[in-house]
Amino acid sequence: MQRRILVAAVSVLALLATLPVATAEAQLKGEYKIGVLEPLTGPLSSEGKRHLAGYEIMRDLINARGGVMGKKLVFAVADIPNPTAAASEANRLISREGVKILTGSFSSTLCGAASEAAARHNVIYWESSCVDPRFTRRGLKTTFRTEIDGIGFGWYQVEFAVKYVAPRLGKKPSELRVAFLSEDSSYGQGATEAARERAKKEFGMQELAAEYYNFQTINDFTPILIKFKQLNPDILFGISRNNDSILLWKQAKEQNFVPKAVITAGATGFGSPDFGKALGNDANGPFALLEPGPGFKVEGLRPDGREIETAFRAAVQKATGSYPLGGHQLAAGGLWLLKIVLDKAGTDELDAFRKAVFALDLPVGSLVNGWGAKFDETGQNSNDRVQHYMLQWQNGALVTVWPEEFTTNRTKWLPLPAWDKRK
Amino acid sequence: MGALPQLVVSTLLLGGIYALIAVGLTLIFGIMRVVNFAHGEFLMLGMYLAFWSFSLWRLDPYVVLVVALPVFFVVGLLSYWLVMKGVIKASHNVQIFTTVGLSIALQNVALVLWTGDYRFVRPWHASEVVRLGGAALNLSQIVAFAVAVAFTGGLMAFMKFTHAGRVMRATAEDREAATLMGIDTERVYRLAWTIGIVCVGVAGVLLSPVYTVYPQAGLQFVLLAYVVVVLGGLGDMRGALFGSLIVAAVETVGAYTLGIAWKEVLYFVLFILVLVFRPAGLFGQRGAETLGM
């Protein structure tokens, strides 16, 4: 008898647990389809698939929370391994599937072509990942980006140096002696030039050197490390890809180069898991600007942001068995923001949609990843609202260390001690 | 002045790496007159051989080196029979397209079999540093340099003192005359190709503790190897070694004095100057550029 009551109670509880979802989904009137463009084959496929997974997880969360404009959100997905495919698939989704909004695309090599195609049809292109600064500077009224651009990376690198590193080194920002070392693609140069300008003009930092290299042909960093060692900077700012960052850091150890802090940005290079895999505990110390990672404290977010971030993390954990990765986070952050805009606009008609986008004024902590939103007239979300986080390599893994109100971890090794003291 | 010892050491060690790759290329270039655009991909295969041997059986790359010699001898023979044999008498254009095709095919085979992930070979000596007179020397690079010098010396001796070497040089000088003298030129080409592939395969194994392993890893070095070969003189082993050291010196000193962005400009200016004023290369015999010596 007792067992029956127990079974009945559990069944009722289980039913109640699913009720909000089932009710919310049941109330949706019809479907609303958007196009999702991702590189699902080719060299970018692993990131593209992760990005799509982020979209799908967030789509289900959105549908459990009333969908978009009261309708169930559905996807028409297309594979775009290269820019040609990006343009043709964008055209196909618009003309055959009849979508009025396209989103994607993970990569800076793809977002330009896809958004040009969308603009020709006067269709909204909502980018959530690519960081090419030129993307929002083409005067396209149909193009929007939720993530910061490469220049935003530079902005945040300096922000961290000024607000966090300088006081801990016992220096004013204008007393900081800094050096820049970056790969020379438009991404690396865009971010680095933005950091240089802000460091110099806004804070009067003393620039000792700025060096660019080709990440595909670099075989030896020794000469530049000898030079940097002689210059003895407080901070080394860097943007790198993958193999170059590993070679750089390995040779930095060989040359016993010890700046007081190394501040990098982006999910490649110092921000890639490969960096830790290759170097183990020798990776310890450098900072990388990323989306929130282990140690991120949802309690620091506003109630609305906290709710969706918690649900998203649990859903990713359930689907993948791990903490959300950058690809998941960027896609989900972008899609959640799209829902908010569509719900406010009540339509996908371009003028009303733009009006809703520009009317958004959400403080940091309101959205997934702790983001806020305030778009400028080019369709770019603003640097100070798209909250980014500084992660540090500690014990061979990246952990969130800044802003401190959003994390349970604390920075170690600032200033960086000798190489054998970073264990 | 304080930087000088390190700059000298870096030049020598980097030059050793370039020589290791260029020596096989110059052999193929000189004897067969084939520009092997797939050279970098054989280097990449060497790196993967070291990676898998290390990850699966914890075999040190220096142990794998012993296995690499026969493995790449077979790889060289197979690639010759399957690909190069058919185009050995074809025009240069056909040969170039064939080796470019081979390069892309090998890259994609690696991509399909082993994915585009970055892989690392980290034996104990990968991070071992020897400090000498104010300079730091990576142990893996010291070994690579020593092997490069040994290989170059060995190949020079082989070409000069053995019958097979003399036959190869004769074929390189004049294919028709060599044929008339009863030399089996097809066998000579097969041997030159195979030895060239063995050299670059071994180079791949030796470089695996220093660099990241991935399907496009060869592209990182192969352009430099062409510069070295042209600079040193087509087909000249000694030229390959000295050409490597010259390119490494230009790169190292240029990066230190002018900035790292200038290094490619500098060595390509040198490359163009050599082509214009001494087309046979710094150590090549005059007129060798037309003979393929």
Describe the structure.
The complex is a heterodimer of chains A (about 425) and B (about 290). By secondary structure, chain A is of the alpha/beta class. Chain A has helices at about 1-25, 45-65, 85-95, 110-120, 150-170, 185-200, 220-230, 245-255, 275-280, 305-320, 325-345, 350-360; strands spanning about 30-40, 70-80, 100-105, 125, 145, 175-185, 205-215, 235-240, 260-265, 285-290, 390-395, 395-400. Chain A has two domains: about 10-145 and about 300-370, Rossmann fold (3-Layer(aba) Sandwich); about 150-290 and about 390-420, Response regulator (Rossmann fold), CATH 3.40.50.2300. A seven-stranded mixed β-sheet of chain A has the order 7-6-8-9-10-11-12, sandwiched between helices. In chain A, strand 11 (about 390-395) and strand 12 (about 395-400) form a beta hairpin. In chain A, helix 5 packs across helix 6 (about 185-200). Chain A starts with a helix and ends in a 21-residue tail after the last strand. With about 290 residues, chain B is mostly helical. Chain B has one domain (about 5-290): ABC transporter involved in vitamin B12 uptake, BtuC (Orthogonal Bundle). In chain B, strand 1 and strand 2 (about 135-140) form a beta hairpin. In chain B, helix 2 (about 40-55) crosses helix 8, helix 5 (about 140-160) runs antiparallel to helix 8 (about 185-205) and helix 9 crosses helix 10 (about 235-255). The radius of gyration of chain B is 19 Å and the shape is globular. The termini of chain B are far apart. The interface of A and B includes residues 212 and 274 of A.
